[in-house]
Amino acid sequence: MGDTQEQAKPYDPYSNQAFADLITQALDRYAPHGHPDFNDIVLGIVKLHSDKNYDYARGGDPLGNFKRSADILGKYWHVFATPEGPAVLAILYAMKQIDNVLWSLSQGGENVCEGLDGKLKDIAVYALLTLIMVKEAQQVRKEIAEFPYIVMANADPSEGKNDTDPV
After folding, report:
1. Which structural domain, as residue segments, surrounds residue 117?
2. Measured between alpha carbons, how far is residue 127 from residues 90, 109, 154 in Å?
3. How far apart are CA 136 and CA 63, in angstroms?
4. Fewest beta carbons less than 10 Å away: which of 72, 102, 115, 164?
5. What are phi and psi of 94, to 5 degrees?
6. Is residue 2 in some structural domain?
């Protein structure tokens, strides 16, 4: 043994399979009438929630990721009904990944679910997809400007009419 200490990893009570089995048995006794796999799935979801919360909150507000995202979304809600809406959503997803990277780096730890490499690659993918979606939105806007009757042809014919309007 050397004099160097390993960096402590976060406590993970579910890494011990015997403990997870004990929890599953307790759930099976507490709620015995469901599908036999249900409680195992629930336990897996509890673990996933804990891991994701570790990655996105690090002991801070467990809903902080959603609150930060809602803050961003609140500034741009009107754009979602435009051709640029999907691109804005992709940017929001990328910003959530960036937020997680910044949060993780500021807390000095690694993520449990997905490492820094995976998050940064996600950001790159979202950026490239956003380029594609912006190009598609520009094409839609160009078509609308050149051929406005296409938009009208796709409109609901009953909109704006009443019983006295000619057919």
Report:
1. 61-155
2. 8, 25, 31
3. 34
4. 164
5. -60, -40
6. no
At residue 153 the predicted structure's pLDDT band, cuts being 50, 70 and 90, is low
Token output for 77: 């809600």
Instruction: Specify if 164 maps to a domain.
Output: no
* pLDDT (tens digit per residue) in 95-126: 888 988 888 888 887 777 788 888 888 899 88
Given the structure tokens 């801070």, which residue do they identify?
60
> Which residues neighbour 80 within 8 Å (Cβ) at sequence distance 6 or greater?
88, 89
Q: Are 51 and 113 in contact (CB under 8 A)?
A: yes
* Sequence-separated (6 or more) residues with CB below 8 Å from residue 111: 54, 55, 100, 104, 119
What is the tens place of the pLDDT at every residue in 9-65?
565 555 677 788 888 889 889 989 989 888 888 888 888 888 888 877 777 888 787
Based on the domain organization, do 79 and 52 belong to the same domain?
no
Counting every residue written for the chain, the total comes to 167
Q: Is the pTM of this model over 0.70?
A: no
C-alpha 37: how far from chain center: 26
Same domain, 69 and 118: yes
